[in-house]
Amino acid sequence: MSTGLRVLQVASEAFPLVKTGGLADVVGALPGALAREGVELRTLLPLYPAVRARLERAEPVLDLGELMGGPARLLAGEAAGLAVFLLEADHLFDRPGGPYQGPDGADWPDNARRFAALGWAARELGLGALPTWRPDIVHAHDWQAGLAPAYLELSGGPRPATVTTVHNLAFQGQFPAGLLAELRLPDSAFTIEGVEYYGAIGFLKAGLVYADRLTTVSPTYAREITTPAFGMGLDGLLRARADRLTGIVNGIDERVWDPANDPALPEPFDAERLDRREASRRALRERLGLEDGAGPLFATVTRLSWQKGCDLLLEALPRLLALGGRFAILGAGEPSLEGAFLEAARGHPGRIACRIGYDEPLSHLIQAGADAILVPSRFEPCGLTQLYALRYGAVPIVARVGGLADTVIDANDAALADGVATGIQFAPVTVEALVDALERALLLWREPERWRALQRRGMTRAVGWSARAPAYARLYRELVAARGSTERR
Ligand code: ADP
Question: Same fold for the domain at 5-251+467-483 and the one at 274-462?
Fold first, then answer.
């Protein structure tokens, strides 16, 4: 089923090549999911050392000359099963550390140039520099790709259609106005209708202004970001473009996240063999040194940050323990939060466990072994850990915001009676409401039949990309059809 649509997605990370968060999961999964919809999606990434190490094959296809301070060229090839274009610009990307920060945790001082270069490479591909592969659509992810739609529009000639997807409005990529010329942006673009944002150059803002269509990763977040409370200063622009803005919930990679076939688990299980989940629960407790409690084993896998409500978790811990609960957290992030969780674990051995760091296999075991996954985010564009929880039979307990509101059905009396509940939601996002949710969870957990029904229902919900890809395919087709009709006019 080929529609012949070619889409170039532009991103700074893609699972499994390089990942700091949910963005990578989406970028890594979209090509496969959209192939089944007849859309050919290729991915443009910076050639970081981690990507070079995973290259299966690559050949130079385009010389980009001098780009943001050094020579650059584009390679085309395949890495970890993805069809990729890679921006080889060693002065920008060939260095140790993360995609955005050095080994010391500080942002790379040349991030403006690094990701402007990425946008520029997308422009070249978009304008047809490779006659053999010319995209109908350039799809930019987050601020790092935000200049791609801007460069394309500012080129002034015929260009492909463009989409900007916001994975998290909190990261906007703002840089000093003095860089304008160096970033190859014309003075005329430095206006409120252009890239100017509170006196600086806004990369995400540029993406939101210049792209033909905007998407974000859940319908609720799409509504929220048009309000001052969630709009992070961009709500006015998003309100003005609300008719171009769509929310499409993320899927998860059901091959990577499959409790029936997961090397990180001691024993496979699924909704029909839920009793086998106990082996994972035991393995998790043993691995983390947690005793069995009179209440559920709650867990969280997260970036440790204010957004994720980690401070609320910390405050709720005494009450969680008083309910007989146990708590495990795997995370990395703000040093003060890391210290506070480590301290809590030291103060309550056997009852609270904390692992600082990034540990993919342990994150799988936690989803498989915890009774409930806590996600008390203050805002959450989509959230993935509650989706993994659903698939792995851990009951998600989530703040009623963004994608969390869209993907978990609260176990209120009506939903329980109708047999549709999959987890617990709470609002507002406060310690009191979180503790209420823990208490509700305890009551349900004490009724094993009800609890198992919740688990089973979650496990049979469609959380994979096959359920989401049609929405992107529809958006792409509409976009190309709409441009076709304006061009003909
Ligand atoms: P965000 O992208 O805002 O951090 P998401 O819930 O969308 O939040 O995605 C987070 C992703 O990162 C999930 O795949 C989650 O399992 C993973 N993750 C977060 N922290 C860790 C960690 N310390 N170890 C392993 N995986 C983690």
Answer: yes
